[in-house]
Structure formats: structure tokens, C-alpha cells
Amino acid sequence: MFSFKIEKYLLVISFLSIILIYGCSKKLPMDKQIGFDSITLLNQDSSQVVFPDEYKNKILLLTFIYTNCPDICPMTTHNMQLLQEEVKKDNLKNVQFAELSFDPERDVPSVLKEFGDIRNINYNNFTFLTGKEADVKKILNNMDILALPGDTTKTESGNVYFFTHTDRIDLIDQNGRIRNEYRGSKANIQEIIKDIKALED
Amino acid sequence: MIILLSLLTFLTHSPKIKIENAWVRPAGKGMNSALYFNIENSNTKPDVLYKVSSPVAELVQMHKTVETNGLAEMKQIKSVTIPSNKTIEFKPGSYHVMLIKLKRDLNVSQKIDFVFYFKKAGKINVQAEVKGQ
Asked: Which residues from chain A sit within 8 angstroms of residue B77, using beta carbons?
């Protein structure tokens, strides 16, 4: 009789442990609501995109770039392309990719289009975004993205400046909540794919 | 005798500074790009890379990307010393040659000409391929 009770308890504990382990394995480290109302941005084709509404019920990988960046932002964009390929290969549905420029003065839609075209971006589920400076700033501030213009360099045809900036990709879930963030230029593709799969379930 | 002379000529002219795996990022006219490569110095003394030039950009500068607490920034560097019997990598997220205000589009597979200037080895011509990375 006594041993039967112990067996029962052990069974219940084992069952609860399995639930706990399974639950923890799906848990992502962040759960932060994007804290701003709808903001109208423009994509690379000059079409309006209402952010974040456009991505409701979708999983979004969002990063922040400027097209004059010669080193870090192209690395991040390349990682986003690798992620896009991996998502397609794994047949993961409902995943979107977006890159918001923190340099809207220079990064008008046509410039973003050229930046994407020369890298053979597949625009099926990949969008470049820009907008009014005040709107872009609102998003950056809310998402803790820093982009500080540096010294100006003179060239034959005019001046050029570069940014000191946050190097990050954000993973945003179907409810507009930030669930994880990664170093954009050195992203671990498989880690991000694993997190996307956890959100898909 | 001829063999000995040939060997001597080869040894005196064999490149002691080798630049390998040179590649450039694609970018449009008026934009910026970066050149990456490895420099191998098989001399017994260090050498210094102090300039890189190319007709493809209005301005060519050496930079290093530094990341601190998730913030990335680039710092211009005047020269890079390559110690004897060492290889220095110019790679994404680290040392790179910045091509500022491109005079034309750099499309994947194109070959771009550069001249590297070393204090001891002098001028070395290098061709780099545009790669979509």
C-alpha cells in the first residue's frame, strides 16, 4: 500500500517535470511589448507600410541599418539573407524580414531599393523601411537603438558621414512582442532559427 | 651555373609580401564598400602597409571596426604593421579598406584593381573580386 503511494507520487513528479522541462525549452528570454502606436513608413518601392500593424500575426526579424555603412550593416544584411534562405529551406511559414534605416535623410526608398537590388534581395518576405525622421526616431528610442552620426569626411563630390550604431536583430512575435535580440553582424543563424521554431509552435 | 643563377634570381625576386583572398562587397555608384584580404609577410623584418589606392572610389581609407557594448563604430587607421613571418587579416567586423563614394556600381563577379603601398616592399598591384557576402 505504502509503496503504491510512493509510485503514484513519483509518477506525478515525473509528469510535472516533463511539463516543466518542455515549457522551459520553449521559453524565450524576452517578452517586451513594442511601446508605440501605428507609424506609417515607406518601403523600397515607396509603398506605405503601417508599422507594426503590418506584421500582426506574423513572426518578424527586424534590424536597423544605413546604406552608406561599408562593413557592419552589409554583414547584418547578409545574415538576414542567410536566415531568409534557412526559413525557406525549413518551410517555416509566416516569417517576415525587415530592415529599418536610421538614416532616413539619405536612405530614401530608391536608395534602399538599389541597396537591396545589388545584393539580390528576395523581396517576397523582405522589406526595407524608411520614413520621416521623427517617426524613425520614435521607433529607435522605443527599441533602444542608438545611431549617432560621426565626423564628416570630405570627398571630391561632397561630404560623407558614418554612424556609430547598435548592431542588433530583434525577434518579434505574432503579438508584437520582442522575444529575443541578437548581434546582427555576428548572428548565429541556427540559434535564431531555433527561436523562430519555438514561436511557431 | 644557369640553374644556380635562375635560383638566385628567383630567390631575390620572390614575393616576401603576399596579398591573398582579396574581395570586395557589392555596392552602388555613390555609395561605400569595403575591401578585405590577408597579408602574409615572410620577410625577416616587419613591413608597414600605409596606403591603398583604387580608381573605383573617390576616397580610399584604412579603417577598423570596433564593437563595444553592442555599439559598432569605425576608426580610421593610418597604417598597419605586419610583423615578420605573420599574416594579418583584413576581415568583416575588423580591419578593412573603405571605398568611399564609388565612381561606379560594384556588381558580383567583377574584378577591381588596387595598389597597395608598403614601406619596404613598395607598390604591389592586387585584383579583388566582388563577392555577395
From this structure: none
